[in-house]
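Q: For a teaching session next week I want to show students how multiple molecules come together into a single three-dimensional assembly. I've collected the sequence lines for a complex. Could you give me the predicted C-alpha cells for the whole thing so I can convert them for display?
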Amino acid sequence: MNPPLMDWLRRSPRRQTLAADLRRQWEADPQALVRAIVRVEGEANQYATVIESMGLRVRHTFTLMPALAVIGEAAALLRLAAQPWVIAIELDRAVHTTTDEEAS
Amino acid sequence: MNAEASGSGAVSAGDGADKLHGELGARIAGRGVGEPLRVIVRFRDPQVGRGLLAATLEATQVRHFELVPASALIAPPSLIQELARDPNVEVIWEDLPVHTMLDFSVPHIQVPAVWGEGRRGRGVTVAVVDTGIDEAHPDFTGRIVATQAFGSPTPHDGNGHGTHVASIIAGDGRASNGRYTGVAPEASLLAAKVLRDDGSGFMSDVMAGVEWAVQQGARVINLSLGSDGSCDGTDALSVTCDAAVGRGVVVCVAAGNAGPASRTVGSPGCARNVITVGASTDNDAIASFSSRGPTKDGRVKPDIVFPGHNIIAARAQGTSMGSPVDQFYTSASGTSMATPHCSGAVALILEAEPALAPLAVKQRLIGAAVNLGLDANTQGAGRADVYAAVHGTTPTPPPTPPPTPEPPPGCLGSVLRLLHLA
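A: Of course. Below is the structure for the complete assembly, covering every listed component.
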C-alpha cells in the first residue's frame, strides 16, 4: 500500500482495522483465546517481537501478503488493533477438505 | 488359485477353496447360508460349464460371456462352494461393484490425446496443499520432491484426502497396471500438510503452505479445501492466493460442496485470479453438491467444471477416506476431486508452453471448455476439454455422450480387465 494512502487511512475517522461485530465479541469476552490474521504495513517480520511482547504468540509470518498469524487473548488483539501499523485484523477461520461425504 | 495359475491346467483335488479368488472365500464364510452372492465363474470347457449351470440355476440368474469362457451368476454360498469343487471350474471371482474412475474421467476430458503427443507433465511441479501425501504409495514413486507440515507435527497423511487428490493430478497408476492413472503422471509433486488428519485446519496454515509452495518453485498449487460461507475475495487467504498468482503460479481451488444453493463459494474459491473449479458428473451434469456463485460481491464463480463424482484414485495406507476399493485405491466425490483434474490439466498446458502466464492458462481452459448450456454461476465456462486447452483451440466436437451402464448382473469389463484382455 502506498504511503499517502496509509497516511489517509491512519487519519481517517472511518478507519476500521476490526469488524464491528468482532470488536463487540472480543470486548464482551476479553479473555477468550483467539486465532487471528493481522495485516500490517511493510514487512511483517519487523513486528513479530513487538506483537509477542503484547502477550500474543506469532504462529506464522507471511511475505506474499504482509501479515502475521497470531494466537492469544481477545484483549491483547484489541490493543493490537489500535496500533498505527496494523491495517486489519480478521479471524483465522477454519478450513476443511471439500469431499462430499454423502456422495462417496 | 489366481487367473494365471489356473491357466496352467492344474486341477484342484481338494475342496476347491483355492479356486475362490481374492476375498471371495472369506466373503462366503461371513455370509448366511441362504444369502446369495454375485460371482463370475470361469470354466475349462464353457459348453460343459453352461450345462452344469443350466441344471442348477434359472436362466434369468445367469449371463454367459463369449470372449472369455465364463458366466456371471447370482448363487447361494453352498452352490458356489459346490461349483468350486467341480473340476471343470477354473476360478470363481466375486462380481464386484464398479465405480466411475480415473480411467473414465481422464479420457472424458480428452487427456489421452495430450499423452499421445508425448506430454505427461514432465518438468512441471505441482504443490498439493492438503492433508499430506502418502510417500510410500507406489503411484508416486520418486516424484515427491519435498514435504512440509504446517500446523501438524509431521507431513504424514493420516487422512487420505491429500493422497487421493495427488493421484488424480499425477498418480502413474503403477499399483493398478495403469488403470488409475492421473492427468499428468510424470509431473513432480510438493506436499504441504496444512490440514490435520481430521481434514480440517486454519486459513493461516493454508497461507503458510501456499507461501512454501511458491518458495519451492511450484508452477501449480492445488487447493481442494475451503471455508464455509460466501466471500468477496478480500479475506487473507484469498488475497494470498491472488498474490501467488501474481508471482506466476497457477492456483486451482475447489468451489466447495455447499450446492445447489447459490452464493455458496467460500474462501479461497472466491479469489479473483485463481481457477475456481466446480464438479461435473459422468453425464456432464453438474454435481448437486458443487457450490454455486456468484461471489458475495457479485462475480461469476466457479470458472470451470471438471469431473468430481465417484472418482477412484490412490488410497493412503492405513486410511479409509471415501469408499475403499482395495489396498491401494478408494472412491470419493467432491469439488476436492474435480480440482486436481484441473491442476493436472494445467501441468500439461505448462509442459507444452512453459512461459504461459497464469491468467493466460486460465483463459486457455475457459476458452476451450465445452459449454453445457447451464447458468454461468453453475457451470462457469463449462466442462473442461484439456486437449483443446493445450492447443488453444475450441472444444473437441461433439461432446462425449453419456456412458452406457454396464449390464447387470455380470460385469464383462471387470472380467476382461482381470484377464488383461482390455
